[in-house]
Amino acid sequence: MASFLYPTKEGPRYVKGHAVTLAMVGFAISVYGFMSWYFARENRRRKNGVEDGKIAGMSEEEIAELGDRNPRFAYTY
Question: Which residues span the membrane (predicted)?
């Protein structure tokens, strides 16, 4: 990718390369912000018992097999 985004003829400013890099960093920041908000919201819902209906009537083994869909699971971020 670098050879296409930072061709020698565009140096030393490399406007296209820096613009694409900055856009990708901005996108990553927005994804990180959204995922932090989403995980905090999910943890709050699970802590308040909103998701407890999913495990009604299940054994402890079945609950453990749910993985991150388990209402007792808490995301870390």
Answer: 20-40
Residue-wise pLDDT for 11-64, tens only, equals 999 999 999 999 999 999 999 999 999 999 999 999 999 999 999 999 999 999
Q: Cβ–Cβ contacts within 10 Å for residue 16, how many?
A: 13
**What is the pTM assigned to this prediction?**
0.79
Q: Could you give the number of structural domains in the chain? A: 1
Domain of 38? 2-69
- Angle at Cα 40 formed by Cα 63 and Cα 26, nearest 5°? 125
Helices (H), the chain: 2-5, 15-47, 60-64
